[in-house]
Amino acid sequence: MSSTTAAQVTQSSPTIAAQAPASTAPTTRSSSAQSADAKGPLLWTVLIAMFMAVLDVAVVNVALPTIHTELHATGAGLQLSVSGYTITYAVLIVTGARLGDLWSHGRMFRAGLALFTLASLACGLAPNIGALIAFRGLQGVGAAAMVPQVLSIIQRTFNGPGRLRATSMYTAVIAGGAAVGQVIGGLLVSANLFGSTWRPAFLINVPVGLAALVISGRVLPKDKGEPGRGLDPAGVAVLTPTVLFFVVPLVLGHDEHWPLWGWLLLAASALGVAGFVAVEGRLGRRGGTPIIPGRTLRLPGFALSISLMFVVMAAMTGGFFAMTLHLQGALGFSALDAGLAGAPAAGAIFVVSMRWRKLPPRYYPWLVVTGFVVVALSSFALAGVLHGGTTGGLARWILQAVNGLGLGLAYSPLLGTMLARIPVTDAADASGVISTTAQISQVVGIATFGTLFLNLLAQAHVHASAHAITVVMIVTGIVALLGGVLATRLVKVR
Q: pLDDT (tens digit, 9 = 90+) per residue, 334-391?
């Protein structure tokens, strides 16, 4: 495969972050809660910023071939220009969440948004691939500071039915970014505005980010953080390299042919997890504030829901990514056509995200189980449609929509009911855990499903690619079935 295609293996399509709680239970209203008139602009401001962070991943993936040509980038350079964002984002999310508790969620959101916007401008003006890699890392830092605050801001501002509506919109915006990013990226690169080719893929964030900054200064809460919280430097010092050691080999492993240093880093990350648990346990026993509180992990159903979220995110991003490689690499789809091919699934996720809460709460665990089963059956059906080397036509579109329906059913009620159990005071820490899990699960999904696809693609022709995507879809279906079995345990959680 080309260096560009190989580089794409390191990055998922849409980054889907943590979903805010869908609780109908009464909660203590934050002192920084906004008036009714201010809530609408506040919600749209944080959602637009989140949309940019999601959009940025898909838009850049589409622009990679042009970046490769114009900046004379090697495969490794392209790889780092994409994965630099993912690595810094995943490593720093938990720290960003705690800094929001410490210094104010509104301030951290604005700081992250400002850095993300500035880094987007720098990426759009980057003179060479080295500069682009560095500025992409800065984008990841900005996203890690901005994204975790969204959950806390929503939870502290909205109550009851208003929170349900806000969280549904949150999930819908994320799902919309999955499809819109590919389409916008294809349009911007194809339009070649003012001869700028790939650069508008980054520069589009600048006017949107500036507008969001102006509005956020007026509508975001003027909170002062959570009293009594510290940064937990020991926990940060252990967790940061642990996540780094885990993510880097998964992001770079395939392109580097899985070298020894990658396996050593993965082993070191396992030791880091043990060390982190020991450090956090000691701090908790001394009455400190661990960066990942044990009481949050011990909430009913939280650990189970985190595990299920990992499964659904890994299966979704890995399956989507392999499908994109097949459509573009073997069937000759353009970047825009490949983006449009994912629209049915994203549209179905969008609809489910807005409507699932209409059902009685007693059905929510069974919605998750049903979602996994639907994903499994539609994946098996897609394997049957694509194994002959054709595009699948209308049948593929319908099955991708059904697949998105299942993903929406598995994802939205799962996170909504999980976060409903989290106290307002722990929202930031929960956001950090969930966002980190979401990022890592996507990296794992791309590393496993992407590697499986490329290893099966012995020769770059249609039938070899059809065989590879067929196997990937079957494996996706099996993973989804296992997730459905695990999800049945949610029925017992109260």
A: 767 877 787 888 888 888 888 888 888 888 999 999 999 999 999 999 999 998 888 8
Neighbours of 195 (CB within 10 A): 6
Q: What is the structure's pLDDT at 491?
A: 85
CA distance 333 to 313: 25
In angstroms, the Cα distances linking 406 to 9, 22, 71, 352 are 24, 19, 40, 9
pLDDT digits (tens, 9 = 90+) for 141-151: 999 999 888 87
Interatomic CA distance for residues 388 and 297, integer angstroms: 46
How far is C-alpha 215 from the chain's CA centre? 25
* Helix 36-70 with 129-157: angle, nearest 10 deg: 160
Q: For the chain, what is the mean pLDDT? A: 81
Q: How far apart are the first and last CA of the chain?
A: 50
Contact present, 476 and 375 (Cβ < 8 Å): yes
Cβ count within 10 A of residue 145: 26
Distance CA 494, CA 490 (A): 8
Cα separation, 366 vs 95, whole angstroms: 34
Tens of pLDDT, residue by residue over 401-458, are 999 999 989 988 887 777 777 777 777 777 778 877 877 887 788 778 888 888 887 6
Backbone angles phi, psi at 26, to 5 degrees: -65, 140
Query: Cβ distance 375 to 480 under 8 Å?
Result: yes
CB 435 within 8 A of CB 100: no
Instruction: Please enumerate in sequence order all residues whose Cβ is within 8 A of that of 99, keeping only pairs 6 or more positions apart, or say none.
Output: 108, 145, 231
Which amino acid does the sequence have at 116?
F
Per-residue pLDDT at 182? 67
Size of the chain, expressed as the number of residues it contains: 494
Q: Name which of 321, 347, 344 is nearest 397 in CA terms.
A: 344
pLDDT at 111: 95
In this prediction, residue 4 carries a pLDDT of 40
Structure tokens at 324: 């994109």
Q: What is the pLDDT of residues 447-472, one digit of tens each?
A: 788 888 888 876 657 788 899 999 99
Looking at the predicted structure, is the pLDDT value of residue 5 above 50? no
Give, in order, the Cα–Cα distances in Å from 274 to each of 147, 284, 287, 304. 27, 16, 20, 20
The closest of 482, 422, 76 to 251, measured between CA atoms, is: 76
Cα 315 to Cα 324: distance, rounded to the nearest angstrom: 14
What six digits make up the tokens of 73?
Answer: 């980038």
Is pLDDT at 78 greater than 90 in this prediction?
A: no
